[in-house]
Automatic annotation (TrEMBL):
SUPFAM superfamilies: SIS domain (SSF53697). Signal peptide: none annotated. The keyword Nucleus does not apply. This is D-sedoheptulose 7-phosphate isomerase. Residues 33-214 form the SIS domain. One of its GO terms (biological process) is carbohydrate derivative metabolic process. Keywords: Isomerase. The keyword ATP-binding does not apply. It comes from Allisonella histaminiformans.
Length: 217
C-alpha cells in the first residue's frame, strides 16, 4: 500500500479519535477493496442498507464511480476508440474512470415486485444472487447489524464466495459473525452511529482512489 494511501486512514483516526478502536478493521477493509480493484477481474462492490444507510449506500457509489479527489483520466486506447464518434472530444474531456460500484436500494420495480409477490426481506439477497460474482465485495451498512434484508444479502454473498464488509454500530449485531470484516463503530444510538459511518466510508473511498489512480507513493 502506498504511504499516501495510508495517510487517509491516519487522518481519519486523528480527526475522529474514537475510531482508533476500529482502525485495524478499516485497514483490513481497505486492503480488500484495493485487492479487488487491482485484480485482473476488476470486481465491483454492491452496497445495501435501509433508511439513512440506504442514502449512505448511494453516497458511496457516487464517490467511487467518478473522481472523488484525484483525476482519473481515460486510458489511451479507449480515448482513441471514442474519438471516432461525434461526441468523442467532449466524452474524452468529461468522462472519468470509475471504480465499479452499485447500490441495491434503487431497483424500485424489482424490490416492489419482491415485496408484493414474495417478501421484501429478500430484496437485496435477490440482487446479490443476480449481480454478484466471485471476486466482488458486498458492502453492508446497518446501524444495528441486525437488518434482516441486509443479513440475508450477506448470507447469499458468502454462499457465492463474495467477501462481505459490514459497517455497523458497536455490537456488530448478526453481521459481526457473517462479515469477512466488520467495522463496528463505537456508538449505539442510530444517529451517532451514522455520524461515524460517513467519515469511515469517505476515508475508504479516498484511500482506494489514491491507491488505484495516484502516481508514485
Amino acid at each position: 500500500m502506498k504511504s499516501s494511501t495510508m495517510q487517509y486512514i491516519e487522518e481519519l483516526v486523528t480527526r475522529y479519535p474514537v475510531l482508533e478502536k476500529v482502525k485495524d478493521d478499516v485497514v483490513e477493509a481497505l486492503n480488500m477493496l484495493i485487492n479487488m480493484y487491482s485484480a485482473p477481474y476488476h470486481g465491483k462492490i454492491l452496497v445495501c442498507g435501509n433508511g439513512g444507510s440506504a442514502a449512505d449506500s448511494l453516497h458511496i457509489v457516487g464517490e467511487l464511480m467518478k473522481s472523488f479527489k484525484i483525476p482519473r483520466p481515460l486510458p489511451e486506447n479507449f480515448r482513441q476508440n471514442i474519438l471516432k464518434y461525434s461526441h468523442g472530444k467532449e466524452l474524452c474531456k468529461n468522462l472519468q474512470m470509475p471504480l465499479q460500484a452499485m447500490s441495491l436500494v434503487c431497483e424500485v420495480g424489482l424490490n416492489t415486485a419482491l415485496g408484493n409477490d414474495v417478501e421484501a426481506v429478500y430484496e437485496f439477497a435477490q440482487q446479490v444472487l443476480g449481480y454478484g460474482q466471485k471476486g466482488d465485495i458486498l458492502f453492508c451498512i446497518s446501524t444495528s447489524g441486525n437488518s434482516e434484508n441486509v443479513v440475508c444479502a450477506a448470507e447469499v454473498a458468502l454462499a457465492k464466495e463474495i467477501n462481505v464488509i459490514a459497517l455497523t454500530g458497536a455490537t456488530g449485531g448478526k453481521l459481526k459473525n457473517l462479515a469477512t470484516v466488520c467495522i463496528a463503530v463505537p456508538e449505539i444510538e442510530t444517529f451517532k452511529v451514522q455520524e461515524l459511518h460517513l467519515p469511515v466510508y469517505h476515508a475508504l473511498c479516498l484511500a482506494v482512489e489514491n491507491e488505484i489512480f495516484k502516481r508514485g507513493e
